[in-house]
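[Discussion] Sanity-checking designs against the backbone

I'm trying to build intuition for which residues belong where. Below is a structure token string of 203 positions. I'd appreciate it if someone posts a full sequence so I can compare it with mine line by line.
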């Protein structure tokens, strides 16, 4: 019984240490690459999805595919860095980072399914809603990251409001919305990660 309590106390201490450390698992190159991917996808949309209002499925295939690819790349890098570190603390911090961000991904996916299946007429709201939910995810993760990352969360929230305000009518699922939100947001996050973590520490 004492051994079990001691192990539990060690686990609690490690979790507390993980919460107080700055998480270095996100890399500027990977995050920036996802931003560039978003800009390229916006360019592809102009040719591949000529009219999102009548071809919502193709629009979703494009952007859900971009999100899935970005998540896979980030997930593989996080897993590899946690494994190579050989540190239990690094693994705890990686798990915490994923746990804090995962709810926004789940909510975004559920929103997309509900709108696609039940209310395609309001699909013009998707870029704004995605941006708002993603911004909340960034805010939830920001306590593990450099303080400047909070500006990325604010950027996503502002962009989400812009898309919701101007996204109707002729701007229905326009390419500029996702280019502005996802492309711009990820590039801003990459710049902050590089400036606050990698430039100073060379890691």
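Best answer:
Here's mine. Compare freely.
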């Amino acid at each position: 019984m004492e051994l079990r309590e001691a192990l539990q106390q060690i686990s609690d201490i490690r979790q507390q240490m993980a919460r107080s450390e700055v998480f270095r698992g996100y890399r500027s190159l990977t995050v920036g690459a996802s931003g560039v991917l978003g800009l390229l996808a916006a360019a592809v949309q102009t040719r591949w999805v000529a009219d999102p209002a009548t071809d919502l499925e193709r629009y979703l295939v494009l952007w859900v595919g971009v999100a899935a690819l970005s998540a896979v790349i980030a997930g593989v890098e996080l897993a590899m860095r946690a494994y190579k570190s050989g540190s239990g603390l690094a693994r705890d911090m990686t798990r915490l980072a994923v746990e804090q961000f995962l709810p926004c991904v789940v909510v975004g996916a559920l929103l997309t399914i509900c709108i696609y299946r039940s209310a395609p007429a309001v699909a013009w709201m998707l870029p704004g809603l995605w941006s708002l939910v993603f911004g909340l995810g960034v805010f939830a993760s920001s306590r593990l990251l450099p303080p400047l990352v909070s500006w990325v969360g604010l950027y996503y929230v502002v962009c989400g409001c812009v898309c919701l305000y101007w996204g109707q009518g002729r701007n229905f699922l326009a390419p500029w919305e996702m280019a502005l939100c996802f492309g711009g947001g990820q590039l801003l996050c990459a710049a902050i990660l590089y400036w606050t973590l990698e430039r100073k520490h060379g890691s």
